[in-house]
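quick one before i forget lol
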Amino acid sequence: MVLGIFVLIPLTATFPNPLNEVLWKLVHNAAHVPVFISITWVIFLIYSRRNKTTFLKMLLFSLLLAGFLGLSIELIQPFIGRTGSVSDMLKNILGIS
């Protein structure tokens, strides 16, 4: 499931919306939460397997790294022809937490 999400991320990020449909926009925007749930979970699993530390430290590291990734994505978007938004970042944070 996680691999499938990571394969679909580039497709949804670059897939054109020629009809400017409201439904497509809703689905696309709603994807932020499950994608960042998955990203945080994967970071946590990888970090926990490689480091023998407390649960709290692993969780904090995972949340911070996923948050940094979400913020970076929103900040980079204006340079690649997209628009970053505060609402997207809030959806990312909702998925991270």
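fyi The chain has a mean pLDDT of 77.
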